[in-house]
Amino acid sequence: MLFFFVSDNRKAPSATPTDAERVALFRSLAGGSGTYRVEGEKVTERYESSWHQLWTGADIAADAEISGKTLTLTTAPFKSPQDGKDVVVVTTWERIE
Question: Residue 83: how many CB atoms within 10 A of its CB?
């Protein structure tokens, strides 16, 4: 698996980004790659690389639900690497024919 998310309101930095601009860019993205396994209604992702080094080598599990053509994955609460707040990630995919 591979994912890369960026905020929809990212601002372009100057030609030579300042430290503050670099921080803002970092805080508005997430990405990772690795493998996944499916066990019943749970999907576990094993991160081989990640934007936040604490996730590299970690397993992150999510509950999976299929409704019609839609797959929804919901994680348990975890601390956001960006601000330390508790977050739950809900991701949905719809099969297009």
Answer: 8
23/77 Cα distance (integer angstroms):
24
In the sheet with 90-94, reading across from the earlier edge strand, the strands are: 2-6, 29-39, 42-50, 59-67, 70-75, 90-94
Q: Using CA atoms, how far apart are residues 64 and 13, in angstroms rounded to an integer?
A: 38
Residue keyed to tokens 């297009």 = 96
CB-based contacts of 73, cutoff 8 Å, min separation 6: 43, 62, 63, 64, 89, 90, 91, 92
- pTM, whole model, 2 decimals? 0.69
**Strand (E) or helix (H) holding 29:** strand 29-39
- Per residue in 78-96, pLDDT tens? 887 767 889 898 989 898 8
